[in-house]
Write a structure and sequence with these properties.
This protein has 20 helices and 23 strands. It is of the alpha+beta class.
Length: 490
Amino acid sequence: MLDSILVANRGEIACRVLRTARAMGLRTVAVYHHADRGAPHLDLADSAVELHAEVPTAAYLDATQIIAAAERSGAASVHPGYGFLAENGDFAAAVEAAGLVFVGPQPEVIRLMGDKVHARAFAAEAGVPLAPSALMEDSFEAFVEAAAGIGLPLLIKAAAGGGGKGMSIVHDAADLEARARTAMSEAERYFADGRVYAERYVEQPRHIEVQVLGDGRGNVVHLFERECSVQRRFQKIVEEAPAATLPAELRARICEAAVKLAARANYRNAGTVEFILAPDGEFYFLEMNTRLQVEHPVTEMICGVDLVEAQLRLASGEGLPWTQDAISVTGHAIECRVCCEDPARDFLPATGRARVLREPHGPGLRFDGGIREGQPITAAFDSMIGKLVCRGDDRTQAIDRAVTALGELTLLGVDHNIDYLARVIDHPAFRAGALHTGFVTEHADTLGVPVLDADARAAVVIAAALGVDDFRRLAYDIPEPYASIGGWRN
């Protein structure tokens, strides 16, 4: 077993990995930029190494500094978390070249799956279904002609992309050329790789993904599927497991396809195979994420596993911790991504200071957070600051618990999406399982911020303030020395 680990990340995921590593008895090392001095993940590590860069994100993307920090601290392994360098094959190779263990897939597999064009070709060879597509191989003109031949609507995507960058939907043939050039420009800007491809755009699809674990020797198991259809700007905000209203036979076929793809790649460690599910029941390969997913807690809660522990054991060479028939599902879980953003302004990221943070508690609740009270929220990092995960005996109970918990989760000092998330999961269409990737847009009118008059707004502010201990003390406590001398006055 590994004896030590450096977590090459920050925030919520760094806290998540460090907690499991500590529980397993590993010596832990954190890294940080000075903008994160005092962040919670530093308290969870046995030691911490500062990374230097003018821009905070550049520090966490500096592979040379991170590997040097691991060597200097004596860490035997590196866990990348998600984001930053998590899906960088060159980083994984450099970690291994330094004699350290990379907690993740082989570098060549990361590179293969990171290139969407090559990944699609690999999936086709494995017999995994693909939507009709056109690749940019020779000239731009030939690509546009091939894409037009697929038929509308079309989705143009960056070959090296992710997170909705370099992506565009084409509904009108007259817009095809302009949107393709825009996608190429975005792909070059975000990924330094201007290649794009086009595929048939499925109207109102569901986004289904399968959690897999592999030992790097062709043995792979799945931990069933997650529903990730509720998204804004191509990015997930609510996930659940298992997927709502998914027939057992279709679930089996999707999970089988994910295992087939990962096994063909001799996949090692944890990964996720993502699919688009059309309304007619056909499903198509979307991509494979070669890392731990943001939404992994919902799988943990229905399968009763710790995926980070599984990652560390696989990285130690222990082999798969379970056989497929030993993995089962109990109950239902929902995850809500808590982000500092303004849903009323197209989810524009918000900045400020977390003046008050109160987490909910109760049966079946889990809050994976990455900030503390008083911490500044800047535009330097992703807007997500934590995840509320709720498990129930069934989907209805999970939803009810999540709605209640979101009502108890308090964050003052910066705009956030907590109330918006509660409206989403309490929406009749969500409760009915009528989900697709356009859910947020379709129900925008009923998901909007309720309009309050001046009196109602004042009542809400006062009620929130009275719930804060510091405010109550300032408002009602008698200061010294008057508190000591009682009611007597001269």
